[in-house]
Amino acid sequence: MEETTQPTSNSKAGKGLGIAGLVLGILAAVLSFVPCLVCSIVGCSIAGWQWYALSKLGENSKESLELLKEGLEHLDTAKLRMDMEDAVKSITDSLEAH
């Protein structure tokens, strides 16, 4: 008698690991974009904050320049010069007295 061994075919042997590998691969592909999203969100947030800060700086400096212009219009340079000359004279007089 001749014994014949027939190969047993188990078609379900690698399906579980194949499906697990496919799921892990898809999950890894999706999660690989998370650092890109985080970096882009952080970058856009910083850019937005800088834009806001610079726009406020522009508004504040515009108001400051207007106030400076108004102050310069009302500045009495002759009186200021006389006050400065008086201050210098009083300092030199006090230095000469000592």
Q: Keywords for this structure?
A:
98 residues; mainly alpha; 80% helix; rod-shaped
SSE inventory with pairings:
Layout (H helix, E strand, L loop, with lengths): L14 H17 L2 H40 L3 H21 L1
Short overview:
By secondary structure, the protein is mainly alpha-helical. The protein has helices at 15-31, 34-73, 77-97.
Model description:
Helix content is 80%, strand content 0%. By secondary structure, it is an all-alpha fold. The longest helix is centred in the middle third of the chain and has 40 residues, at 34-73. The chain starts with 14 loop residues before the first helix and ends with a helix.
The strand count comes to: 0
Q: Residue ranges: pLDDT <50 for 5 or more in a row?
A: none
Roughly how much helix do the residues carry, as a percent range?
over 70%
The SS-based structural class is mainly alpha
Please outline the major beta sheet: none
Identify the overall geometry: rod-shaped
Q: List the helices and strands in order.
A: HHH
Share of β-strand residues: under 5%
End-to-end separation: 138 Å
